[in-house]
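Continuing the series of single-chain predictions for the mutant panel. This is the parent chain; the variants come on the following pages.
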Amino acid sequence: MKRIRDISPPLVPGIPVWPGDQAYREVRTATLGPGCPVNVSAVAMSTHTGAHVDAPFHFAEDGATVGAVDLAPYLGPARVVDLRGVRRVEPGHLAAALGDPACPPRLLLRTREKAVAGPWDPDFPVVSAAAVEAIAQRGCILVGVDTPSLDPEAAESLDAHLAAHRHGLAILEGLVLDQVPAGNYELIALPLKFMNLDASPVRAVLRDL
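Parent structure:
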């Protein structure tokens, strides 16, 4: 059986969220015991909590909601590219991957040594709009990162997101790639069918080829 690698952070109270976003909360609304045959829970969280898909509706007036996006980009061959130590990903950092004819059409960029599980880190690595353009021009259909966003926290315009939107490039953020060697895998990271929303948490996994 092919190995499955979980690349999603645990959804637990205290998981870092974008400043101002809804903190993750969970409540037990029914408890298994005398007179109650089940456990039932409710959760409150930002749609951008943990590993998540950004829908175009998040940043573009004409963008599709997450329930209406094409699912094909989130399922299929992908390459993990090791860029640890790079603070801003530029086209040159991707030259080897993009120049490889065998490179799959989904790129997952590992920029961190270890995923942040504690307090919010405002100085996370980012991806330039030029790098997104290069990824799209190579014919890729998805870019994923192990940070909360392609663009910086303080960005006044979401240039990398908008570049992805211009080319129909799907965005996957908040991945955990700590234990994943660079190489090719099968990605599975389907968003939930939230028909009116801007993003969706996902259970993202990689399966060895």
